[in-house]
Amino acid sequence: MQKKQFKTESKKLLNMMIHSIYTHKEIFLRELISNASDAIDKRYFHSLKEGGTTGIGKGDFEIMLSVDKGARTLTIADNGCGMSAEELENNLGTIAKSGSYDFKKDNDQGEEIDIIGQFGVGFYSAFMVADKITVLTKTENGESHIWESEGADGYKIGEAEKETVGTTVTLHLLADTEEEKYSDFLEEYRLKSLVKKYSDYIRHPIKMALTSHKKKEDSDDFEEVTEIQTLNSMVPLWKKSASEVSEEEYNRFYADKFFDYEPPLRVITQNSEGTATFTALMFIPSHAPYNYYSKDYERGLELYSSGVMIMEKCADLLPDYFSFVKGLVDSSDLSLNISREMLQHDRQLKLIAKALEKKIKGELEKLLRTDREKYEKFFEAFGAQLKYGLYADWGAHKEVLQDLILFPAAKLGKKLTLKEYTEAMPEGQKDIYYACGETVDKIMMLPQVEAVLAKGYEVLCFTEDVDEFAARMLEKYAEKEFKNVTADALDLGTEEEKTALEEKNKNADALLSYMKESLGNAVTSVRFTAALKNHAVCLSSEGELSIEMEKVLRKMPGATADVKANVVLEINHAHPIAEKLQALFDSDKQLLAKYTKILYAEARLIGGLSIDNPTEISEMITSLMV
Ligand code: ADP
Ligand code: MG
Questions:
Q1: Ligand 2 centroid to 31 CA: how many Å?
Q2: How many whole angstroms from 103 Cα to the centroid of ligand 1?
Q3: Residue 623 or 207, more confident
Q4: Is the pTM of this model over 0.85?
Q5: Is 564 left (phi over 0), alpha (psi -120 to 50) or beta?
């Protein structure tokens, strides 16, 4: 055999490649199996062209894995097209030269040739785990050759003897090190699981002799049996049209792949051609995984290139607000099937992600329209994520998300979309009203809510931390502003009522200032209001930050004391307490201060807030009794 050097700057390139392009060493198996599968497809293609004279039928094709533990070798054998000496030289001797790519180019006349290889680097990944590779190959014309290489030093080609058409690639595995136990690649369980993981949907059977223990007939003894078994399931479910696949099949696939004991809420299939060509099979789970709302949850879809898995969790395929979606994408035109880092900048991938987002949005809208109960179940599990999405990135995703969110409505007692809310607004209602609280029941008890409901207007209940932040980010829906009934000035009364109230507040300026002083920094002002029906007092806020927002922000790590809402103590102008306060201002300022503190404590309790000085307040109340 004559020793040859790799073409081009191959030595350098080879070293670089072997050690930096691939993220996981284990993918070498996927690469060699893909090559074997391509070779079979080529031979099959030739046989069709020749009218089936090559003496091999579709059912005879196979890829066989075998190991020799003593010799530390792993062999991948196929009965594909084989390689001539020239092809060995060109395709294996030249890095980044892909015989498969050329084949596809030369033969693709409109017919679909689904060949995996295209970059001419996959083969070399085997040098991540092997220090020597031997390729024995026989072409359909009967030429047999051997190719051998120990990596960067070059390769040798010679004539050889081989019985059957096809290629046998033998890897002499590297010696085990502390970090890497290469001999693992000789173990059945490891090879089986690698095939399952990366090559399950290769169209041709990937076989291996597996040993198992079987009970002997007529005896309790066990014997070791070795049987050739097919390791891959071969048919990618997503390549079948949705009408051919039963719900049961989808559910089983989902359960097996994503380890979920509950069937998915919805199956989404997508077949796209044009700017981005891909097939997607996605699932909306029926419940949130236990770690969904934590940092541990990893979003992403499985990414396949022509049926070969290239990434387990491709995060770039899903926006954060749809991170609950599980599934996979298969595309034959991903420009590089090698590393995460390179995929991130892939234009094709971005196009696919855009198309998926549109599809998911459409499916959720459809669910909302056609199966309200299911949608509400979905929203129960993942609604918070959609609301975070509204808030994130300065509201950049509102077009996608604003029609997907639901809020419980106080009066109706059911959940409404913003569209439903605004469409049902009675004449005269200008804004969208909401109130914040721990539960719908507690919100219903808020004095300001009572007043708005009495007007015949509906109030949306914001019970989750993120709600008000999301609404503030939206600012408006259908040209209607969001108004917090306990914070914003509500435009409920008539013009006369408003002027009368202003007048009343102005006249009581001295009283109200005195009350404010007696509460110190707790409030920024005290004023009369006409918005309360039966209650004597309530709290509201003025400015950007509402009391609820302050509560949420205070809970966050790193919150500072200057995160503070401007709190206003409001007194029902029509309540007898209003007159009483005025009277005390003239007769007993000390008692007025006491009453003010009690009223403020009441307002806090009504608003679902705690009081800082419960003993002081209790004593004050008791002192009024004795
Ligand atoms: P790619 O598969 O992207 O083309 P590889 O480095 O994996 O790149 O393989 C280079 C080329 O070597 C292939 O395109 C193919 O022409 C040839 N080749 C590799 N393995 C086989 C095989 N088992 N049988 C026939 N040809 C092969
Ligand atoms: Mg390849």
A1: 5
A2: 11
A3: 207
A4: no
A5: beta
